[in-house]
Amino acid sequence: MGNPRVLVVDDEAQIRKFLRISLGANGYEVTEAATAAAGIAMVRAAPPDLLILDLGLPDMDGQEVITAVRETSDLPIIVLSVRSLEFDKVEALDRGANDYVVKPFGVAELMARVRVVLRPRGAKDAADVVESGGVRIDLARRVVTRDGDELHLSRKEWDLLAVLAGQADHVLTHRFILKEVWGPAHTDDTAYLRVYVNQLRQKLETDPARPTLIVTDPGVGYRLKRGE
């Protein structure tokens, strides 16, 4: 099978070198591109296992690169950018990025996120059970237990939890969750979403005031954290 192949698209040579060394030391095969056009061409010619993408590219905004890649590929995309505004994060995730890391970043954190997005897709897609701490979510049987005791969820609470668990370890935007659970007419009802997230936390979390299962990415959305 060989080592996972990672394409780094960033116009800063120092960043590319740093990532090449860091990823290489962790067993990844790295290729590089300094422009959006080159990166898109490389994805289409020989799709990598992962794309790490900067947004501030000289010939095209990285947001447009995400859209272009998603036209032909569902490969995992991690955005690595100095842009820290919520708007930029939400836009990248809504366009199809799997994760968003703000520069400067820690190598350990980046490697952890790389491992998450490179988990075997078949295993992720077919996984009927998601576990974290004492919580066990059986998506096929629609059963949730905490420390072995079955929990009773309302239909909407289950629908919300199923969406989060179906893409565990990935931040999902408010708009995406609302569309999936309540439909396109409710994509701006973030206050409504907060109510249901709070209800789930009351039932699932050991300390709902300090959630460790359903965590918030402020201004962006929520992530259900899978236990290691």
Briefly, what is this?
This protein is of the alpha/beta class and about 230 residues long. Helix content is about 40%, strand content about 20%. The model is unreliable at about 120-125 (pLDDT under 50).
Q: Which structural traits does this protein have?
A:
228 residues; alpha/beta; Arc Repressor Mutant, subunit A; 2 domains; 5-stranded parallel beta sheet; 4-stranded antiparallel beta sheet; 12 strands
Folded structure, characterized:
- The chain has 228 residues and is α/β, with parallel strands linked by helices.
- The protein folds into two domains: 5-118, Response regulator (Rossmann fold); 124-224, Orthogonal Bundle (Arc Repressor Mutant, subunit A).
- Helix content is 42%, strand content 21%.
- It contains nine helices and twelve strands.
- A five-stranded parallel beta sheet has the order 2-1-3-4-5, sandwiched between helices. The protein has a four-stranded antiparallel beta sheet with strand order 6-7-8-9, with helices on one face. The protein has a three-stranded antiparallel beta sheet with strand order 10-12-11.
- Helix 7 packs across helix 9 (190-204).
- The longest helix is centred in the C-terminal third of the chain and has 15 residues, at 190-204.
- The two termini are 24 Å apart.
- The relative contact order is 0.10.
